[in-house]
């Protein structure tokens, strides 16, 4: 990569347990070997706004779905713009940024409760600041994702969780249809070994570097 080029911006997407963190770690190992300057980060963040989201997700705080969607949006804008470690500036300075979730997560998850148009509108400011060069969607059968993450939770809870993940996966696929031509999305089959998935991701990323 030439010294004065902007970094590339890669967003990983997928249902919970699809393997995003694992694949981001493997991609980081590879980029390190290739001597690419990169930075990995995730949403929700660990900022004060992100902490509110974590409190809601763990049931310690209750909020209306519209408030939750607005918090994800605010957390995202702060992630882009905050003066200490905002990623917009890092990308402008030439660092490649790899993000675990971005606004397509809001489209897929929050559209369980809210209209997609509302969410697209709410995320317009973030999109104007930074649109991913590529969104890598790790597609996995919800049942397999559940097997990977279930641990020893109760049967009923698992059943509810699997139908939620099925809904979110469908939402992602509907969103990709709706946004054809607007968002760069690469779908990777996540129902395979870590190494097979990682190889596809590496060859995708190499096209953008
Ligand atoms: P996410 O970040 O998308 O929630 P993780 O990377 O944390 O997903 O993966 C969820 C679980 O599945 C972890 O225990 C991880 O070790 C395991 N895992 C990830 N990828 C694979 C794979 N390709 N095959 C089998 N297990 C996997
Ligand atoms: P996390 O524990 O990071 O899960 P994962 O490892 O699967 O990414 O929690 C993130 C959760 O927040 C996940 O269930 C998806 C959800 N989420 C939204 O609902 N909307 C959003 O905009 C984002 C970024 C995440």
TrEMBL record:
It is an enzyme of class 2 (transferase). Gene3D superfamilies: P-loop containing nucleotide triphosphate hydrolases. Pfam families: Thymidylate_kin. Its EC number is 2.7.4.9. It catalyses: dTMP + ATP = dTDP + ADP. CDD domains: TMPK (cd01672). Residues 12-201 form the Thymidylate kinase-like domain. ATP binds at residues 14-21. One of its GO terms (biological process) is dTTP biosynthetic process. PROSITE patterns: THYMIDYLATE_KINASE. The keyword Nucleotide-binding applies. The keyword Transferase applies. Phosphorylation of dTMP to form dTDP in both de novo and salvage pathways of dTTP synthesis. This is Thymidylate kinase. It comes from Eubacterium plexicaudatum ASF492. The gene is tmk.
């Amino acid at each position: 990569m030439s010294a004065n080029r902007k970094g590339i911006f890669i967003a990983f997407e997928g249902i919970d347990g699809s393997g995003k963190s694992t694949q981001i770690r493997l991609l980081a190992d590879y980029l390190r070997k290739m001597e690419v300057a990169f930075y990995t980060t995730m949403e929700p963040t660990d900022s004060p706004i992100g902490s509110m989201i974590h409190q809601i997700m763990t049931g310690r705080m209750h909020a209306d779905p519209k408030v939750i969607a607005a918090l994800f949006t605010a957390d995202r804008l702060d992630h882009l713009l905050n003066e200490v470690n905002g990623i917009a500036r890092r990308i402008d300075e030439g660092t490649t940024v790899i993000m675990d979730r971005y606004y397509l997560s809001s489209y897929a998850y929050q559209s369980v409760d809210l209209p997609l148009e509302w969410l697209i509108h709410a995320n317009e400011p973030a999109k104007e600041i930074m649109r991913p060069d590529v969104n890598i969607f790790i597609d996995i059968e919800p049942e397999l994702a559940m097997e990977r993450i279930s641990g020893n939770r109760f049967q009923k809870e698992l059943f509810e969780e699997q139908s939620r993940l099925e809904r979110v996966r469908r939402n992602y696929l509907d969103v990709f249809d709706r946004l054809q031509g607007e968002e760069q999305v690469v779908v990777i089959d996540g129902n395979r070994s870590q190494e097979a998935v990682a190889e596809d991701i590496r060859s995708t990323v190499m096209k953008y570097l």
